[in-house]
Fold this protein.
Amino acid sequence: MEATEVGADVAPGDTRGGRAEFALPDRLPKSYRVRTELETILRDLDEGDPVPSERDLAVRFEVARETVRQALRDLLVEGRIRRQGRGTVVSRPKMVQPLSLRSYTEGAISYGRVPGRLLVSWDDIPADPDTARDLAVPVGTSVMHLERVLLADGERIGLESTFLPLHRFAGLRTTYDPSTSLYAAVRGSGVIFGQATERIETVLASPREAALLECTTALPLLLLHRRSLDAAGDPIERVRGLYRGDRIAFEAHLTQ
């Protein structure tokens, strides 16, 4: 494909004048053009409004239905639209979860959503090397493992696996309701959260994870690793959280 020159007599990547100039393609993919037009249409629609059908969009934009289908797939992955029955409707905005020492419950409520959880498993397991390191226990030590599906207004948006040192939190077995906030229960036991380290990556779901999150294995997920310490610097938890990239976003507040 030939390129259209940007800036007279300036080669791609030339930084003369303090800025780089690059050659741009003279033609954008049809699916990108269709997606741009679709975004304009979506701005005039409300949550739950139907999106025009593939056939109607193909006729309107004078492109093949596969071109429209690709643009719709991109918007589905981004969470701008969602399937409903045999059609497609406009999605509500993604829930924004703050990266902080607040619980998922607090974050969901602050965004006007109703939080919930479905218990998948709750058992004691031997600590593997990574878990043992993060919880400061010997490898093979029994640790508490809690796996739950996270809900927002009844919709599955995350899958959270939490590992806790059993010697500190064995009492949760008789006092804690796993459909509620674990952070509230930990704080209620007298533990004060001091700090946490988090790392976020993008991954694809395994078949089991996709089934629990009611999504496809092709949907990008946000994988969050967290290690939390109490005010004295002792480990509280190790968390592996998977979140649907089309339903949730994370936000950090930074200060100097």
Summary: Residues 3-90 form a domain with the Arc Repressor Mutant, subunit A fold (CATH 1.10.10.10).
